[in-house]
Amino acid sequence: MALHIYKIDCITNLHVGSGEINYNIVDNEVERDSVTGYPIIHASGLKGALREHFEKKYTKDVITDIFGQESGAKEIKAGSYKFFDAEIITRPMRVSHSTIASVSVASVESINNFMKKLNTFGFDGFGVDLLKNFDFEKYNFLTNFSLSKNFRIEGETVGELDENAKNLLTQLKPVIGEKIAICKDFNEYDLPVISRNHLVNKESKNLWYEEVVPHNSVFYTIIITPNDDMKLDLSGIIQIGGHASIGCGYTKFTKLN
Fold this sequence. Notes:
Layout (H helix, E strand, L loop, with lengths): L1 E9 L29 E2 L1 H13 L4 H8 L14 E2 L2 E11 L5 E6 H13 L20 E3 L8 E2 L4 E3 L2 H9 L1 H4 L4 E3 L9 E8 L2 E9 L6 E8 L11 E3 L10 E6 L2
Parallel strand pairs: 5-9, 6-8
Antiparallel strand pairs: 1-12, 1-14, 2-4, 3-12, 4-5, 4-7, 4-12, 6-9, 10-11, 13-14
């Protein structure tokens, strides 16, 4: 058994719909983890997207071996690869009083969940302790880089992390990037909502609102294979979720181990 850990960069906005009926102002919400409430790509959806991506490149026998028989097939055969949920670790948030428009933000929980999962599977390649003891009473965001006096994220005040936390985050640079801000909880900040309009003969017949995970967000996932041979070539651009025709869901996978 071999463990393969991948970082998933969102090149464009991503919409993997929850499929649930709701009565909120947002008609189509994204999938969310049932415990944290954070955006997630469930393993079944990720597996389905990868299967669709590779069906045109590999023979039917290879596809069946990796992913198993399609639903509804007479013969039930499980795939030899095990796919896990793709969980979010960073997302961009808007910046003001700065020369940059946005900054990547992780939450304490998103980083700790990442480290816990890797530790569970015995991977200690980053050697990072869990983040703890952050004081968010004075500041809503803490960064690992120097700030101008009026620097704001989502209009809120920002402070700097201590040197110990900065050093820990430096070890996670391949995943979260060089400059990062930490917030207490992603759920305090809404995802972007885009209005969508269905036109019939140039007349609006249906206006609805759709939640998206913004481009430059980063997820991670784990794929387990029977041996060290990873048959899936995950280089290039892979589309996940809905609205491929309007440029949603285009991602790039990067192997971390």
